[in-house]
């Protein structure tokens, strides 16, 4: 088990190295950052050279990369071209907000999708199942910006119950979490429903029923626990992408998250921030996947991570 | 004096498709005596599994109890609510299934799965339940029972898993054990061990067994009495020796003659021509007539179950007992 975790973490180092190569060179294909900085007026050649020197952009590319790599080893992503703040500080400042939103969205989606999926499967073909499936379809096909704006209109503008933007306290988390969670829960409910249907046909569910235990004990203890495996995989992947891909929701709710940090940095060709942000997300993604893999063996004893033990 | 533990009275089970009822089990009646092993034999799709599932109230979705009743001395199963079924299941009637490889839940330990049964019917502590579970594992002959208690099903072989299933089923001392093809998925030596075990435990605990099988060898080995089912109906009911010595219904004869005989050298095994008609497409009259080499005019009407020398047979040939049945 421990050997497995160590192996996976070494794997992570390789992944980060590959991504550092990819991101470093690919953003440099987008053009010269210095020209964007002088958007107003006509800069002199000397002024441009001066800025380049200050930012270290006058060095040959491979030297720049080695400097970047050296920083990476010490968790130092350099300074922002714009604000001149350390990139690590910028990321850490925003990581909390992003993490809070990802967790909030995931919790909302679980709270909605698990009951809907389970009941849909148990009452297959009934009117409840019909509405459950309609709900999933709506969840999948609704654009999240529309849902976000609607929630703001109703709960922030008309009812004035909840704040519409920023992240200053737990109440700020509610609307963006619901927006994200609703969208996610559509797919999740479908997945839960289909895994449940598959598991409910298994012989051990009949065995459980034949013991004379309650219907809900059969459904939750025996069926759902087994249906959880594919669901956890999906949730893990989803959580990873929530950390990086919530730009739309972050924009609607003026959420100070990493997604927006990266988008802004891309617009300004702020290389260190882009590099730092992307690598940070990659590491998070790998770690989440590792946690998902490790959680399998908690749910299903047949899965022994590391390949040791009896087959 | 034989004591009836269960009486099945004109039980009809089937699909109710908007009032259009299609019977899978068509009004069968039989009883189960205390301590006996009753075999139910028939081809796939003859309704034997549906019969056994209805004894537990575990009919699959879409299949309904259409008519008839199942009775014990004091209970009428047809009036049962969900809660009443739960009291019966496991406590009075327990069941083991065909596929030991998949009938245990992969994510719980063996001990937990036995304890769950005990705890749901008996008011005892977890510790006591665990002790009982251990006793049960010893009873069914599991080696290293203390360890197995904390092992998962994937760590056991098929035969061991079926022993665990038997341990679960018997953990609350049921009066009746329903065994739906309990040895079909096991290889022959293990089969014999499991049958042996069931027989031993039956004597020890004085319970009745309903053994569903298509294997006449298993029937000969295990059963006291046999019911032969065909297309949702009982076509013959007899003591086991009688059935093998003197099969009466043409279908039973067909089944027996399709068994290979070690003393006889045959190039081909004989078989019964044709297939079982599908539910909803049953012919009028005798349901076996189309495949029967003795079919005649009278078979256009449904024969009743004739009583013949202590056996029952659903065939016009026995209208006047054995005497006129010239075959």
From TrEMBL, chain A:
Query: What molecular functions are annotated in GO for this chain?
Result: nickel cation transmembrane transporter activity
- GO terms for CC? plasma membrane
* Source superkingdom: Bacteria
**In this entry, which stretches build a coiled coil?**
none
Query: Could you tell me which InterPro entries the record lists for this protein?
Result: BPD_transp_1_N (IPR045621), MetI-like (IPR000515), MetI-like_sf (IPR035906), Opp2B (IPR050045)
| Main location, first listed in the record | membrane
Subunit structure and binding partners: The complex is composed of two ATP-binding proteins (NikD and NikE), two transmembrane proteins (NikB and NikC) and a solute-binding protein (NikA).
Q: What is this protein called?
A: Nickel import system permease protein NikB
Automatic annotation (TrEMBL), chain B:
Report if keyword Cell division is assigned. no
For this record, the Gene Ontology CC terms, alphabetical, are: plasma membrane
Q: List keywords of the entry alphabetically.
A: ATP-binding, Cell membrane, Membrane, Nucleotide-binding, Transport
ABC transporter domain residues are 6-256
Predominantly, its location class is membrane
Q: Which InterPro entries match?
A: AAA+_ATPase, ABC_Ni/Peptide_Import, ABC_transporter-like_ATP-bd, ABC_transporter-like_CS, Oligopep_ABC_C, P-loop_NTPase
Q: How does it sit in the membrane?
A: Peripheral membrane protein
Q: Which GO terms describe its molecular function?
A: ATP binding; ATP hydrolysis activity
At the top level, the lineage of the source is Bacteria
Question: Would I find Repeat among this entry's keywords?
Answer: no
Compartments (UniProt record): Cell membrane
> Could you mention a single GO BP entry for this protein?
peptide transport
Protein name according to UniProt: ABC transporter ATP-binding protein
The protein's organism comes out as Neobacillus rhizophilus
